[in-house]
Amino acid sequence: MTSPPESPIEEVVFELEHTRVPKPINVTIEDLYRETKFSKQEIRIMYRGFKTECPEGVVHEECFKEIYAKFFPHGNSSLYAHHVFRTFDINSTGSVNFRDFLNILSTLLRGTVYDKVKWTFKLYDVNGDGRITRGEMSDLFHSIHELMGRRPHQPEEDRKAKEQLERTFRSFDPHNVGYINFEMWMKGLLTNRTIVNSFHVFHSDP
Ligand SMILES: [Ca+2]
Which residues form the EF-hand domain (predicted)? Predict the structure, then answer.
């Protein structure tokens, strides 16, 4: 007697929407298992959850924002969720399929420190030109403050926020070149525990 298959889903071929090609691409659980650091069982569970939340097979920015709002009910998470979504939406199509979603999640939860540093750089390099400017860092800090529920236009808090921005930017840009490239970012993150600790993404390290 042969043993039953592990799960009927094992045989399922995932149909992933991809907006740049006319037909959905078929991806097997094997593909996803090879590409990510998740077990097949974890992939199956996440796929079920993904399909329940996003029946059309892709997650849109609005849906992403709704999920963030549930986690941060006391703040305005919309702006921060927008920045995070940007790092998931690698083709800038406005929607993320399960494969891309899983790949980023794998980086954030199980990736190496280097992978995570790369991700945080992408998050802060808003226009994707390979350099983080003061303005971009300010945008991200602002979105984080909103996420944490800080009220706008509080002179004392605004002053502190400005100081925090200056201090942080200078720690990455000690020679005052006016921007932070990936090398400077990596060096700053790896040598400054305070900054690393401010990134929740590094907290999942084993
Ligand atoms: Ca930039």
Answer: 76-111, 112-147
